[in-house]
Design goal:
8 helices
């Protein structure tokens, strides 16, 4: 909670602009058609609507399989992450970066990153469930989960739709769900 509050305070005071801008401009210098396609694919896997559908589908599947506690857990954490993200975006009302023309359309405020926050919750929980079911492959599952979640956050920066502090705060904010 302390880390999120610190970042939020710095964002509200507009003290992160130089840090955020320098990282985004560096990432902009790395753009090429292949990376652009990879980042668009990664960002798709972090779409809140996709993650909501994944949570609901997984919850229903787990409920039918009599895994009631896991079904309830994914329903509560998925809905909680989405609700908290909407609340925080409205509370902070931070504008998105406008450093270059974007390849993706964005609608809501920037802080914190919903892609980062909700993907951390949903894919993190899914990775945990899979690792529990397949203990011999748990370290591979954990690694792939971390790579996917980190890739989604990076894609938001690469595409210029979030400030780095938005993504960092999105990952940290899951402590509230």
């Amino acid at each position: 909670m302390w880390a999120f509050a610190t970042i939020a305070h710095e964002v509200l005071e507009k003290e992160t602009y130089a840090f955020d801008k320098s990282i985004l401009l560096y990432l902009r210098s790395l753009h090429d058609p292949v990376r652009d396609r990879i980042m668009l694919a990664l960002t798709f896997f972090g779409e809140p609507n996709l993650l909501l559908m994944l949570s609901v589908s997984l919850g229903i599947m787990l409920w039918v399989r009599q895994d009631r506690s896991e079904a309830i857990t994914i329903a509560i954490t998925g809905a909680g992450a989405i609700g908290l993200n909407i609340l925080l975006k409205q509370l902070f009302a931070r504008d998105r970066p406008q450093l270059w023309e974007r390849a993706v359309e964005v609608k809501f405020y920037s802080f914190p990153s919903g892609h980062a926050m909700i993907s951390m919750v949903v894919y993190g929980l899914l990775g945990y469930f899979l690792a529990a079911r397949f203990p011999r492959q748990r370290w591979l599952i954990y690694r792939l989960t971390v790579v996917l979640i980190a890739g989604i956050g990076l894609s938001r920066l690469y595409l210029g739709v979030h400030w780095p502090t938005d993504v960092i705060a999105g990952y940290i904010a899951i402590r509230f769900t």
